[in-house]
Amino acid sequence: MAHFKRLVTNHPTLRFAGSVPTFGIVMHTGRRSRRQYRTPVNAFPTTDGFLIALTYGTDSQWMRNVLAPGGARVVARRREYRLAHLELVHDARRQGVTLPMRLMFRLVGVADFLSLGLVSQSQEV
After folding, report:
1. Whole-angstrom Cα distance, residue 123 to residue 52?
2. How far apart are CA 38 and CA 12, in angstroms?
3. What does the DSSP assignment read for 107-118?
4. What is the distance between the alpha carbons of residues 41 and 3, in angstroms, rounded to a whole number?
5. What is the pTM of this model?
6. Mean per-residue pLDDT of the chain
């Protein structure tokens, strides 16, 4: 399923993910290839950064890239943010997300999140 999503749905989702609520784009560098990647995610603002739902668990390729040295950047609501201070969070109550998303994540069994602390905010993209 992850392979299908990467090939079929990620590309169209990238067109709007950085500008609509509950979506964002994680920009990260490949651990071996050093290639730049853009991955659409469910991103929720927090008081000091973002909470990203790990819909494919904690072992996805983009997660491995983000956890490698260098952190990540996130585009959300048409702004780019440099993030660090990564922390994996298991929250079975899903309290850091909106109620509709909380219900959806419960249905599909998502209870793991990546908390990212804000380092800096760039201009509008």
Report:
1. 21
2. 12
3. HHT--EEEEEEE
4. 15
5. 0.82
6. 84
